[in-house]
């Protein structure tokens, strides 16, 4: 079988707020094993942000204040090869080096995927998917600008803090957006070139057909004239 890996990235601030709202309603990640290099992290390597069954009702401030919150830079972590940095053991290398290795790994893995899209560009994502895999969706994607995350009112200070907590995701998203739009423009240009080539081929066929008809007409006229001369 041929397996194709794809993913969808989202604006880091919106994604972070969406996860907070999800957790606030009682969602947990307890079923996630976080297995890396054949084992799950210890409670010392990955402490919990809450002591009860879930973290329902937590405020955004509480959500941001937990230093072990896996919502921070989640997209980079999920796209990178954690074994390169010792999985969840933060003592393997300095933090700055760890962040660089994770970000570089996430960018490379994203670039090598068969396809990735962006939540904020639904129509372009659909177009690229259809062109990449040569298949069409039954109905067009709908671009929803109103989400649970968009309903959260943030002051500038809070927004900047969320970006700081997700600085790796912010850099990854900027990279992904640039690469995504380059691929979109390339595919559009390729489509236009193919359409132009087909139009040129059609015009060429039409010109050849018209030339053939003219030739037949001229030959027919000469034959009729010679026949009439013989009868005369």
TrEMBL record:
Major site of localization recorded for this protein: membrane
A single Gene Ontology CC term: membrane
Location relative to the cell: Membrane
Catalyzed reaction equations: alpha-D-glucosaminyl-[heparan sulfate](n) + 3'-phosphoadenylyl sulfate = 6-sulfo-alpha-D-glucosaminyl-[heparan sulfate](n) + adenosine 3',5'-bisphosphate + H(+)
Organism of derivation: Calypte anna
Official protein name in the record: Heparan-sulfate 6-O-sulfotransferase
Class of this enzyme: transferase
Region: Disordered, residue numbers: 212-232
One GO molecular-function entry: heparan sulfate 6-sulfotransferase activity
Function: 6-O-sulfation enzyme which catalyzes the transfer of sulfate from 3'-phosphoadenosine 5'-phosphosulfate (PAPS) to position 6 of the N-sulfoglucosamine residue (GlcNS) of heparan sulfate.
InterPro entries: Heparan_SO4-6-sulfoTrfase, P-loop_NTPase, Sulfotransferase
Domain of life: Eukaryota
Family membership noted in the UniProt record: Belongs to the sulfotransferase 6 family.
Membrane topology: Single-pass type II membrane protein
One matching Pfam family: Sulfotransfer_2
Segments traversing the membrane: none
The enzyme's E.C. designation: 2.8.2.-
Keywords carried by this UniProt record: Glycoprotein, Membrane, Signal-anchor, Transferase, Transmembrane, Transmembrane helix
